[in-house]
Fold this protein.
Amino acid sequence: MTLFSLAGKVAVITGSSRGIGKAIAERFAEHGARVVISSRKAEPCEALAKTLNDRHCAGTAISVPANISSKADLKKLAEEATRQLGPIDILVCNAASNPYYGPLAGIEDDQFRKILDNNIIANHWLIGFVAPQMIERRAGSIIIVSSIGGLRGSAVIGAYCISKAADLQLARNLAVEYGPHNVRINCIAPGLIKTDFARALWEDPENLKRRTATTPLRRIGEPDEIAGAAVFLASAAGSFVTGQTIVVDGGVTI
């Protein structure tokens, strides 16, 4: 076993059929974990699970679709993952929503509530379904994929930023609660990453030009560049890290 080995571990990753979640699932499998692929639509989940099973070995991945806005779906996700693969060692809360782009003055109440429900409350629900078994075994790593939006303001994705700031505090609070049970919880705060979720930001030539000009590395990130931080936090390499936020943004926030 190496510091970064995930051999024998079971990992549940939400929003893992594409983008950052997919990259994390692929790297977890590469490091020896059995992974649960979950997102709202069944077909892409099943496709990725098949790819990982073909690439590694049968039983490496399973598909358990779930809509993060449904508490019942998240409960089923935790139960099915445990039933099929055994106790959950690693939980990655990656799925999120951002149905509104513009100033806060123009956001509708239902849009604001959806952002808060899906990006904060849903994480609280799923962690609540998974954490008790980790506490019982005195072992587990929970990772919330937040955003550098949680560390600064924005004129166009303000509600999303508010929700991501709340995720940072959710991790800190739960780290205090779960720490005595040897269960760790941390956040990763990506900068602008080339995903479908952030397409409105990086497909805009002017916005992309401004962003790369103010990024020390002079480019935006790729999904796989977030996966390394997740492997660190999930493995023995991160065993003394809890309640923290690892910023992966090419230097934007410095």
